[in-house]
Batch of 2 targets.
Target 1
Amino acid sequence: MLLTAEETARAARFFTDGITCLATRPVRLMEVCGTHTVAIFRAGIRQLLPAAVELVSGPGCPVCVTPNEYLDTAIAYSRRPGTIITTFGDMLRVPGSESSLMAEKACGADIRIVYSALDSLAIARDNPGQAVIFLAVGFETTAPTAAATILQADKQGLTNFFVLSAHKLVPPALKAILATPATKVDGFLLPGHTAAISGLEPYRFVAGQFGVPAVVTGFEALDILQGIYMLLQQLQQGQAELQNQYRRVVKTEGNPAARDILDQVYQPAGTGWRGFGEIAGSGLELTAAFRRFDAQAALPLTVAGSREPAGCRCGEVLRGLITPPACPCFGRHCTPEQPVGACMVSVEGACAAWYKYGQGR
Ligand code: SF4
């Protein structure tokens, strides 16, 4: 249901007044998703909140959490003769250990930006003598499309299409955060789009096992204000539940059809996250039936010596330990034009959002 401007303003006032009343002690809330981080800045929500309510970003920007080891591997593949790399555009500028995909492209590597994983199949068909490797980066939201692409490649009998999978699942990263005593989080705004695929079940442990309130939240300013309001209501009443603010999109059972496609092609596996290291069961690898599409299985190569950029504190930003201005590089050596780390590159990166939309608080 669409609200009029007057109704929207009234609802926003209701939630901000409510938040102010409920903020009787300092609380630290994590917006897990990069889309939330950007929406919060764009709508000026930080400025609407009382000082007692602190918002901290989490590990929900897929480009940011992809470690340099993966980037270095992608760069090594881009240097492999007879290889075309296909990727979403925001991976291009992320600095690897010694180079970036952008720098490799400038030096002549065949790296093509695609807007959907499916675009890679046409490139593979048009270049039968080349290996086409799609950089499969993203969470539960994008993984089903990559899985559908692999099913299509199988159907079309393509033998020169491969994926380099860095797909990640959000719940295991939340568990890693909750298991780290240094990260103090009183409540979570959970990403609505990943829950739309997975459903609510994978997030129940946040409240059930760790006793921390969590609200699956949409991406409009009103959604976010309501999500914060719901978290503060729980905290004031001493409750810890998983609630769904985004019921117009997120169903309890999620999207079984998308999960079915995913389960045909992928299975959970351990994978590395920037700032966290390897998290068990947090990645997706191809099942045996589709492993021939796995770039690393079909075209093995070895990359050694990956390291994070000197001085970059992306890992701490992604774990909610610090906010970007606490990084000594922020706005000095590290800007969106000259990024040092991934969090300053991606449009969903916390450092880029803090830099672009002001450093109010
Ligand atoms: Fe890394 Fe730059 Fe963010 Fe610092 S400001 S954490 S160097 S991306």
Target 2
Amino acid sequence: MATNRTFTMIKPDAVKNGHIGSILAMITNAGFKITSLKLTQLTVSDAEKFYAIHSERPFFGELVAFMSSGPIVAAILEKENAVADFRTLIGATNPADAAEGTIRKLYATSMGENAVHGSDSDENAAIEGAFHFAGREQF
Ligand code: DAT
Ligand code: MG
């Protein structure tokens, strides 16, 4: 994957609360092009693998249970400086600290249930995109 791409998930809380359309609109209005997109659900094992880096953290069990609790939207996004610009658009991990107008400020309900994921590096964006999308689903 090119380095001008990032990977995102609209998490189960935001899907359940009916925010898919609003969040995708914020993403495209901010200049990101959607190059892969699907509604899917992670198994417990998928969520454990996706978040393996956090396996020693005290919130890991809660995170895995939440992320596998319902459907998510997975997407690959393209824009110059995609990883950093998308982290700015989503806001801080804890919605209480998220800037006004960010996706998490608007739609996250708590630190754990924070509406969206955004990759933290070009390398992880490529790994996470490939985790969710087969070659023929990548454009
Ligand atoms: P981010 O999603 O902003 O990259 P992260 O990679 O540090 O944040 O953590 C991954 C997810 O784990 C995060 O989106 C929500 C959850 N999480 C992080 N810290 C947490 C905490 N202290 N309590 C509960 N959930 C937490
Ligand atoms: Mg992270």
